[in-house]
Design a protein that fits this description.
Chains A, B: It catalyses: thiamine phosphate + ATP = thiamine diphosphate + ADP. Chains A, B: Pfam families: AIRS (PF00586), AIRS_C (PF02769). Chains A, B: InterPro entries: PurM-like_C_dom, PurM-like_C_sf, PurM-like_N, PurM-like_N_sf, ThiL-like. The structure is a homodimer. By secondary structure, chain A is an alpha+beta fold. Chain A folds into two domains: about 10-145, 60s Ribosomal Protein L30, Chain: A; about 160-325, Alpha-Beta Complex (Phosphoribosyl-aminoimidazole Synthetase, Chain A, domain 2). Helix content of chain A is about 35%, strand content about 25%. Chain A has helices at about 10-20, 65-80, 100-120, 170-180, 185, 190-200, 210-215, 225-235, 250-260, 265-270, 285-295; strands at about 35, 45-55, 85-95, 120-130, 135-145, 160-165, 220-225, 240-245, 275-280, 300-305, 315, 320-325. In chain A, the strands form two sheets. A seven-stranded mixed beta sheet of chain A has the order 7-9-6-10-8-11-12, sandwiched between helices. In chain A, strands 2-5-3-4 form a four-stranded mixed beta sheet. In chain A, strand 11 and strand 12 (about 320-325) form a beta hairpin. In chain A, helix 2 (about 65-80) runs parallel beside helix 3 (about 100-120) and helix 4 (about 170-180) crosses helix 6. In chain A, about 55% of the residues are buried. Chains A and B meet through helix 1, strand 1, strand 2, helix 2 and strand 3 of A and helix 1, strand 1, strand 2, helix 2 and strand 3 of B. Strand 2 (about 45-55) of chain A pairs antiparallel with strand 1 (about 35) of chain B.
Amino acid sequence: MSGERPERPGEDALIARYFAPLAGEGADGLRDDAASLTPRPGHDLVLTADAIVAGIHYFPDDPAGSIARKALGVNLSDIAAKGAAPRAYLLTLGLAADWTETWLSAFSAGLAEAAAAFGCPLLGGDTVRTAGAAFINVTAIGEVPAGSMVRRRTARVGDRICVSGTIGDAALGLALRLAPEAPWAAALDTETRQHLRDRYLHPRPRLALAPLLRRHASAAMDVSDGLAGDLAKMTGGVGRAEVAIADVPLSAAARQVIADEPALLDTALTGGDDYEILCTVPPAEVEAFAAAAAAAGVPVTAIGTVLGGDGAPLFVTEAGASRSFAAGSYAHF
Amino acid sequence: MSGERPERPGEDALIARYFAPLAGEGADGLRDDAASLTPRPGHDLVLTADAIVAGIHYFPDDPAGSIARKALGVNLSDIAAKGAAPRAYLLTLGLAADWTETWLSAFSAGLAEAAAAFGCPLLGGDTVRTAGAAFINVTAIGEVPAGSMVRRRTARVGDRICVSGTIGDAALGLALRLAPEAPWAAALDTETRQHLRDRYLHPRPRLALAPLLRRHASAAMDVSDGLAGDLAKMTGGVGRAEVAIADVPLSAAARQVIADEPALLDTALTGGDDYEILCTVPPAEVEAFAAAAAAAGVPVTAIGTVLGGDGAPLFVTEAGASRSFAAGSYAHF
């Protein structure tokens, strides 16, 4: 249950070389067994933990820096959706038997770059060997003015449903990766393929929206498991979501793919890994919310309404037909 | 990279069934993507993360409840060593392909029992599949009066070195598990074997010592990677530790094993998984510290002194010979 690996540096040397340079205030250069953290006066901390596992949440041959950025990004996406600003994170890295220093060096460089871009220093963590697939767990810590964390299940009937950015690109990027020779995939130009792959590889937590969610949203979450399934989670017990499919924002790339292969619309609506913000906003606030979001550089689009009643969200076509997605949620599990 | 498992409940159902009942204040029954937490006025939070991996840190056939207790216990041992009281924890559970609901039910029952005993409710986390070995990551959060976290590297020359409880039992319990038919192992009675195995399986975080460490200790850490190696970490850059081997507290079971097989003294001193407190205390404080610890139900023993100079800790035999352990630290990694 233990073993030295004389040919490669031990845990302490790895931490000193690759992770100590990333440490923030309170982390004591990762030379202690714990770190201290205090929210600013009048603020609450917001905590979340998500792991990504090789072969489940990412491809083992994805670039190491991209894997690091994804591990941090998916957690900060949750932080942003709660209206919080990133404060720090703890990292647990499970290294499989075939790890190399080249990989680890690229991983820590990607992590440093992402953490700097997101304004979120490393506070602590652990590095372990695993007999199986590599994994990365991040516990992310954000901060909100006291009592202002935006909840998931607090939408009200009559609220408008809004999403940021575009939906489905990451799921189509994954589909492209899994079936690069499919007719619809082969028809794409290089730039379009690159856009879709980039959206799958590189989640962009919508940190700029956090203060606007606190001001305008009645409920919010990030879209990680697919729009249809996550919308069901947000509105379940509150009301029934009705979405106009034509209003769901799609990128030019996604529109092209779906025009060529209409069945992939379902992939876009249910596929996951969007890491966009899904929120509900009182009707009187929608215009101000959208304008403030646009000013912050993030497009948001109203796609539907929370109606009374219950049941899976209804997706209404331009012809007036209603669809729902019973399975709904993309299951990483 | 995705898959439904219709024959077994999905992640949301698992969380609702096995983990939601463990959720504390701020966790909203684990029905949101993040939790909120605020330290009491005048307090700092103390955060640490450690993972345990099947086949590395525990045996896959260890009782599931014991694995859960270990995952939480090793983290709360760090919290206690920093002088902090447990506040909450986040759990990331990586389930291997062969997981069963029977296992998960026993795991969550053990976790609930340990969390209740340690006064540390569940705040959030993640449940994922892994293509490889199961793993459990815990991020533990404690609380200390502002500015009073006890650091690892703040010992002073002249301080006495103290440890809680007894050293080596867990490492001998592991040795017993790995070689149950060794002559020294076969000579043990059932109760002795049980004691050693229990110390390996069930770390006991020394939470009762936390306030006393804040009052009396100049530096502290928990003994997780072996006394010799952890002492080197604590005193490196400060001075040279000198320990009287005869003063290192051993259980009756450990004394019996070492009497039968003297080479196992080294296992006891370097083997790890003790989860006792190692600390330095100014000489004038040792008596008061030991008395207060005894009153709190935890024996502490002075085993040596921080001398000037540098180098690996010296372990002095009764005959006056000095030994050091160059490799020192038990490497899980």
